[in-house]
Amino acid sequence: MASLALQFTALKCSPLSSSPLSQPSLFTQHRHNHRRSSTPIVNSVALSNAQNKERTKLKKLFEEAYERCRTAPMEGVSFTLEDFTAALEKYDFDSEVGSKVKGTVFYTDNNGAVVDITAKSSAYLPLQEASIRRIKHVQEAGIVAGLREEFLIIGENQADDSLILSLRSIQYDLAWERCRQLQAEDASVKGKIVGVNKGGVVAELEGLRGFVPLSQLSTNSNVEELLERELPLKFVEVDEEQSRLVLSNRKAIAGNQAQLGIGSVVTGSVQSLKPYGAFIDIGGINGLLHVSQISHDRVTDISTVLQPGDILKVMILSHDRERGRVSLSTKKLEPTPGDMIRNPKLVFEKAEDMAQTFRQRIAQAEAMARADMLRFQPESGLTLTGDGILGQFTSDLPEEGLDLSEVPPAEES
């Protein structure tokens, strides 16, 4: 025991700083690390509890909603069953072929337009059904996104159950109705010549194509020269069931010619030149300015005086209403002989004055003829007026010339 005590006494303790006990023991480090790791575990548990509470709350709300829908589905809902029925009646429509629907264009492409007609299926307007006239794009017919229009259902695409719409069919019916109205009014309209054949010419008006037989043309020129020209026309036959539309240029000309009188000055354009004269279009009437009636001076080559497209003033010499022939003159409008060749501008400026002088000479000649008739037939009881005109005779010649180039075109529907 003594020796053991001596052994313990002989032991010397090292300084505290250098002693192993001065460093954290393994037990101490474990406790410290345990405190640091316990914080996220506590947070995770708190988050999990919050989520569980939210899930429980949502589950309870769902169960309450389910029970309410099962027992009282319309409780607290302002949109009633009657409102639902009214909405169906408001937006429901007949989607059968042949029925008309309102729609709004919301997209266009090279082949047509997609139209919203508030239906369960989409609707499409093909290019060929977009207009009664031939077009290359629907925009040429004014069809753009946002346009609201009435369409006709003409079919259904079996591939995707989409409806096929048409504007052309609606316009077609309106065009025939317009033609019937114009025929009843005996109105004269302008038609563009778009085709020719052996029997006559084809004219386009109101979006339709009608036929003008050769017997109903007032011009003797080659029908090929009428292509792309506009002629005054009247309706002879309008039969929608037979798709038959017959027109007459002669009837329209006869109506216009009633406004013309010998000595009237009209404005026209040169249509074509021939060795014997020039054909002048005077508001749809084709008149002949004979080479001998161009000037008092001799004209050997008409092309040196006139060219196709020239605008000039001419005077009516005569017209045959039955045959639709009109004779014209610029020779009678020359202030001095040869002015039409040297100074045509002066001729047109003085045209009204020269025509008035011409009409006065005609009136005097008629008065002298009637005076001679009185001398041979005194028992007729007719007398001359102070102006030398016999009895109630009055000239139907207008005091001023008519400019038939201002005749308005027919109204479009």
Task: Summarize the SSE layout with pairings.
Blueprint: H1 2-10, H2 26-71, H3 81-91, E1 100-109, E2 112-116, E3 123-126, E4 148-157, E5 162-166, H4 168-184, E6 189-197, E7 200-205, E8 208-213, E9 230-239, E10 244-248, H5 249-257, E11 265-274, E12 277-282, E13 285-290, E14 311-320, E15 325-329, H6 339-342, H7 344-349, H8 351-376
Parallel strand pairs: 3-5, 13-15
Antiparallel strand pairs: 1-2, 1-4, 2-3, 4-5, 6-7, 6-9, 7-8, 9-10, 11-12, 11-14, 12-13, 14-15
What would you note in describing this structure?
This protein has 413 residues and is α+β, with helices and mostly antiparallel strands. Among the domains are: 100-171, OB fold (Dihydrolipoamide Acetyltransferase, E2P) (Beta Barrel), CATH 2.40.50.140; 187-255, Nucleic acid-binding proteins (OB fold (Dihydrolipoamide Acetyltransferase, E2P), Beta Barrel); 260-357, OB fold (Dihydrolipoamide Acetyltransferase, E2P). 31% of the residues lie in helices and 26% in strands. The chain is built from eight helices and 15 strands. It has helices at 2-10, 26-71, 81-91, 168-184, 249-257, 339-342, 344-349, 351-376, and strands at residues 100-109, 112-116, 123-126, 148-157, 162-166, 189-197, 200-205, 208-213, 230-239, 244-248, 265-274, 277-282, 285-290, 311-320, 325-329. The chain has a five-stranded mixed β-barrel. It has a five-stranded antiparallel beta sheet with strand order 8-7-6-9-10. Strands 11-12-13-15-14 form a five-stranded mixed barrel. Strand 14 (311-320) and strand 15 (325-329) form a beta hairpin. It is elongated. The N and C termini lie far apart (139 Å). Residues 98-168, 186-250, 263-331 form the S1 motif domain. One of its GO terms (molecular function) is mRNA binding.
